[in-house]
Amino acid sequence: MEEEISIKVIDREENTHLLKIPTDMGFNLMEALKANELPVEGICGGIALCASCQCYINSEHNLKKKTEEEQAMLAEALNVKENSRLACQIRISSELEGLEIKIAPDD
Ligand code: FES
What we know:
Number of strands: 5
Mean pLDDT: 96
Structural class: alpha+beta
Number of helices: 2
Largest sheet: 5 strands, mixed
Bound molecules: FE2/S2 (inorganic) cluster
Strand content: 15-25%
Radius of gyration: 13 Å
CATH topology: Ubiquitin-like (UB roll)
Order of helices and strands: EEHEHEE
Oligomer: single chain
Low-confidence stretches: none
């Protein structure tokens, strides 16, 4: 099995980054973005309580459903769109190969 996936990330300045992320380290997407020095704060440490890791999912991947905690946080967050997700709630796995996301504004 592939131990690395490629994902495409558009940052807040519309720059595109192609990341390779290991699937065998138990990362979530927020951690993977931070590890690649993308400007995602992750203030709450990944427990769906800050929305600073909000991203828009631009590809058609079948992601796991939002938990109640994630839904509740997104109901309060700013700049939320239909394809918004909290990156910290998305676990990196081989199913995410080719994922395309955009980092949400931070204001
Ligand atoms: S890091 Fe706080 S909600 Fe994701």
